[in-house]
Design goal:
Layout (H helix, E strand, L loop, with lengths): L2 H25 L1 H5 L16 H19 L4 H8 L3 H13 L3 E5 L7 E5 L1 H11 L19 H16 L13 E4 H7 L10 E4 L5 E6 L6 H16 L5 E5 L3 H17 L15 H10 E4 L3 H8 L2
Parallel strand pairs: 5-6, 6-7
Antiparallel strand pairs: 1-2, 3-4, 4-5
Helix pairs in contact: 3-6, 4-5, 9-10
Amino acid sequence: MTNSKAGIKMHEQNSTHKRINQTIEMAGEIGLLYQPYISMPMNYQPGVNNNQKGKDRRALTMKIVTRFGLTSPTIISWLYGIPHRLALEHLNKLVSEKLLSLVITHRSVDGRVYALDYAGAKYAEELLCIAVYFRAGEPSLRVNQNTIMHDLMMQYVQLKGVHNQAKDNKNKPYWYSFVTEPEFKRLFKSNDVRNVDGIAIEPDGTVAAIEIEHSFKTKAARQTILLKWLYGLKHGYYSKIMLFSQSLQIFNDIKRLHNQLYEEMPTRFDKKTRQVLLSLKDVELLKANIVHRTVLCEELTNRFYR
């Protein structure tokens, strides 16, 4: 790499760190809740030669698998702008180096996912400067088979948010950094706050919960979820909730059920507290801070359902 190109790359990396630090500062106390994960840059900046590209991809892939618990060729192909065949080669090379393990599963659009191996966990600890939990034994037990599709869609959304571009190909990220679901679980005990699919910090410092809604849910389930979000908003875990889905029909169903619950819950009482399930003020808080992001419906359908 020439000195001038190396200098440009170093400047880009410094700029990314600076932007993340500025948004965390703007977020105030909420931003501090999510350290050290919220400070980790996950941008892919292509190297100026093949050797540098290989190193950058290797490091970022290992960060992704460590932070999310898995990845797939579909995501790697999209992220690095390479054919599916080369994404497979890239991942299989990491398997041959005993950094990743292959898990065959019909739950993934690729028929496979890749999870962390022991040597990979050790390498990731050096990359991320954190302790990495590793589950020994059968690789298939390192991933939750029931949530693979959901988890890969969430991974795509969070990485897409960092790498989003405007129509003129200029960078226009939805957020600069994020916290994954496994990281959220590590930071907070489930009896303190209910789990969310992810957390992101937007360019203006707003800390948002991100949720993937990839299936229809009952009204009872939606009520539980609304109360979970209300608790998170009121107790300063996040300032808004952004919903993503591959289906406009699911979004329409969510809106329908939410509207019914906004009418019904203020007239019903909690048996333990003898308070209404939702006050009118609570309803307004939820209405103002739940955002339906339909922008990725088509992309999610094309990548995960075709």
